[in-house]
Amino acid sequence: MRPLILAAVALLASADAFQSSQIRRAGLAFSPSRTRSSSTAITASNANEIVPLKQGSTVALITPMTPTGEVDMPALRNILRFHVESGTDGLCILGTTGEASTLSMAERATVLTAAVEEVKGKIPIMAGVGTIDPEHVKEMTQQAIDVGCDAALVVTPYYVKPPQRGLVKHFLTMAEMGLPVVIYNVPGRTGVDFQSNNLALCADHENIVALKDATGDLDRLEEVRNYVGDKLLLYSGDDSTEAEYVLRGGDGCISVTANVAPAQMHNLIMAALNKDVAEVEKINGPLKELHNNLFCEANPIPAKWAVKRIGKMDSAYCRPPLDELAPEFHSLIEVSLTEAGLLLPTQ
Fold this sequence. Notes:
disordered N terminus
């Protein structure tokens, strides 16, 4: 165990009383090349160079499936190419939106390999590896390393409600594996909220590079910046507030909406990074109902139906216990897609 982890663990007993160093983010100008990367070498079977994460719109990618529930690999490859062509800035694969909890390790390997084959070197590939059991997180992280992914999305372990000191230890332990780590805080799904002062205990680790903040609390952004400065890229994980999040100083989003509107989401986040409020309002106005209505049922149910509706795959199948979108919501999604310019009124 490195001295860095030993020092951090020694602080954990008083983590709740940890006080901010009040590092302030002062006047950072947007640069499309601003990145956060790890300097640790990865020894992996693919021997590919790590592509640093960057500012912009990262898609929380769905996993297309056939009507009988198998992963639809041709559709997945087409969707991956669609995102490269549309200017998507990052790929988050096998997260909640990707139904990762229902995929076997063999299926995960197939999906990740396809992603590496299609987009490696073009856009960064972030693999979801989070679950309750740290040993399984390690197993999935090692798989992501071996296949050639660029980062790991590690969620706060859900349901068991670990203490803050346990969360710090969890993230530092995963960072020691060598793959850049994005910490994922989504208390609405996990039942635990990783506090900003404890995030600061992780931010100095060279392999912890970003935060996905899905709290929806815009006021927290300033608090986080006060604790971590510019050590981490800060991504919004809430589609309805992501534009405002970036206007206030965030670095981008990990977006469900980007599954169906990748070009619009890229342009939206670029405008927000440039603090062009008028352009943000122009782009985001037609997307607002889509942001909201893609959550009319549990994610990714509406998103998969929407991707099918715009013709990017043939089936909206979701593995149990999820299900396909209920018929009473079809018109709601269609109207939202039409307002966003993704469907013609006659389609």
